[in-house]
Design brief:
Structural class: alpha+beta
CATH class: Alpha Beta
Number of strands: 8
Helix content: 25-40%
Largest sheet: 4 strands, mixed
Strand content: 35-45%
Shape: globular
Oligomer: single chain
Distance between the termini: 47 Å
Number of domains: 1
CATH topology: Alpha-Beta Plaits
Radius of gyration: 17 Å
Length: 115
């Protein structure tokens, strides 16, 4: 699906999210599914996971632009066109460089210095 490929090309996006129970997907004819994309009659929802160091708002805006451009259909402009909605579901923290503390995720360096 064009929306999936467009979202994954945006710098800072590491993957699409299927939600905590794998429920976020679009099911297409021929038993194909598109994880991380949900279609409604009026909206196209894109659920992304981005790098923890990325600027969240900027990445989300670039995903919106990329998906909107990739899925635009001149025949569906105006009433009846789908609105692109971007959800940042999670942040990917580099493996081995974080630890969970009582107040959430903190850098290992902070733990070693202060704890």
């Amino acid at each position: 699906m064009r929306a999936r490929e467009a979202a994954l090309t945006v710098e800072g996006v590491t993957r699409l999210s299927t939600g905590p129970f794998g429920e976020i997907a679009t099911y297409l004819p021929g038993r194909r599914n598109v994880p991380g994309i949900r279609l409604t009659p009026s909206e196209l929802h894109v659920h992304v996971v981005i790098e923890a160091t990325a600027a969240i708002r900027e990445v989300a805006e670039r995903v919106h632009e990329a998906v909107d451009l990739a899925t635009s259909d001149p025949g569906r402009r105006g009433p009846g066109a789908r609105t692109v909605v971007v959800h940042v579901d999670d942040l990917d923290v580099p493996t081995g460089r974080a630890a969970r503390g009582t107040d959430g995720v903190r850098a290992v360096d902070e733990l070693e210095e202060g704890d």
